Structures are given as C-alpha cells and as structure tokens.
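JOB MANIFEST
job_type = single_chain_structure
chain_count = 1
residues = 328
[input]
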Amino acid sequence: MTNDVTVHEGITYADRETGELKLDLYLPEKENPPLVVYVHGGGWIAETRSNIPDPEQYAAEWDCAIASVSYRLQEAPDGAAVEEMYDPTNPTPRGHFPDHFVDVKAAIRWLRAHAGEYGYDTDKIAAWGSSAGGHLALLAGVVDDVTDLGDAFADEVEQTVAPEESGAVQAVVSWYGAADFTLVEDDVEGLIPLLMGGPQSEIPERWAQASPVTHVTPESPPTLLMHGREDEVVAVEHSHRFFDALEEAGVNAIFYELHDLNHVWVEDVEDIESERVAMDLLAADPTHAQSVYEATHVEAGGSPDPLLADLPPAGPEAIQQFLDRTIR
C-alpha cells in the first residue's frame, strides 16, 4: 500500500489462446469508490498496461478506483510496415482486431463481476484511454458490448468472460483518441489497414463500424475529449468530429483543443515518450493556450447542468471535476 492506495497487480481477467490477459487495480481508502478503467496507448500494437499516468497518485487524489487493463495487441506479419513499433519481446498476448475491443469489454464485465471482492462501485464506470486506447475507450462508450459492434465483425466477437454482466460504461475520457477511421489515408501499408484487415476501399464496412463516431446515439455517455491542435499522429479532426456527433445527438460533452501541442502533449513529435509522463506534461503549463467547446443540453423547462462547473484548464482538475459530475 502506497499513498493510502492498495495495489493489486497482475490480476488475470481472461485466458486467451495466446496467453493470459491481466489488469492492475488501484484502490483508494474511500469506501466503495467509483471505478475508472484505463486503456493504454501504443498504436494498438505496442506498450503495456504500465503505460498510464501515475495511477496511485490519481486514485488517491480523485478518490476513484483505477483499473489499468491489458488487451491483445495487434499481430503483424513479417514485412509489415510497422517494424519500428513492433516489439517481439512485449509479453502481452497478440491477436487481430476486434480482439482489442473484445478484451476491453471483457475487462469491464470482469470488473463488474468482482466488485464485491475488491470493494468498488460499478453502478457507474468511466473509461479513460489515450491514443489507440482513446479509440478503444470511445468505442467502449458508444457500443454497449462486443455483439453490438456491427455485422462486419459478427463472426469475430464473443462474450466468454462474465457474459452475464453489463459491458457498458457511463462516462468516457479520451486523450487524442482516433474516432473516425475514414479520416485515415487509405494506405495498404499503413497501421489502420493492418488493424482493419485491408484497405478502406475494399472493406469500408469494417472501417466504419470500428469508428466510434459511427455508433454515437442520444444514449451515448457524457464524454471529455482532450486533443492537441498540432497532433501529427492522430489528427485533431477526430475529436472535432466526435464532439460534433455528440452535440448533434444531444449528449453532454466537453472538448479541450490545446493549441501548439502534438501527440502525448509534446510540442515536437520527436519528443514523444509515453503516457506515463503525459499528465505531468499537461499539468506543467496549465495556462497553455486552449479552446474549450462545451455541449450542455437542457430539456424544455429545465436548468443547465454543465459537466464542468468552472472550466478549469486541461489537466487532472478538469478530469476530476468531470468524474465527480458523471460517476458519483
């Protein structure tokens, strides 16, 4: 136990053909806290669940349980144009999309099934993800469970872990997540065509159904988006399109667009390290230029109930206020 947070590392939540999938759980002293499920970045092909901003610190500061989950990473055939990202020593099991999404939903259902054992509240769960993890967190928000992903994936999804539990989440935080694959160049050598199993021109249904923006409805959960305007890895237009879709559907949302910042909150893409230091970079200059877009929907005769009371700068305080408003 550190910083009044109890840590359970390496909990197995699923056993796939390629190996065990694990999660790390961080529990604050607060009795029956709400739960945040973190999905790491790494281009769907790299990194591990340790790629997370200090979970002990934020579990304590936010009074939230945090679960950082592993998911099957993308397998890459010999000669694929992703060699610089593919690390054969990474111990995480591998597979092919939609395995990544299947695993994130399995972790959410497993966490619901074991809430009594660990002592957190699963009536309301938030998904938080960065980059590729942002894509999976957004998808987890707008698609109730894997069987709702779409006809293009119907033969590739199955609920084998805690199938009796709900895989839905009640709030989403996305850092520079991919929301609309149709924005990606249709390049047969690229990462997204590898993920989708072919170019968009040949399998447009898979590209569309794997895009979170496709699934937005009035029942989608409130969402907090943060994205750098100068992002060279995932264009900021992804978050613009997702925010616009939420606004049109009547879903409350907040979108922070950070001027001059690139992927993982750096100014130069060559300086990217990992999400482990991302919150420190974001919090280092809270006065950094940013535009904030807010969609607050009011029923006839009702009163506005914004997601953030005073619109603090992008960073831990904004996330905490959002979680306080949505999952407490």
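[summary]
The chain has one domain: 5-326.
Residues 44 and 197 are 13 Å apart (CA to CA).
exit_status = 0
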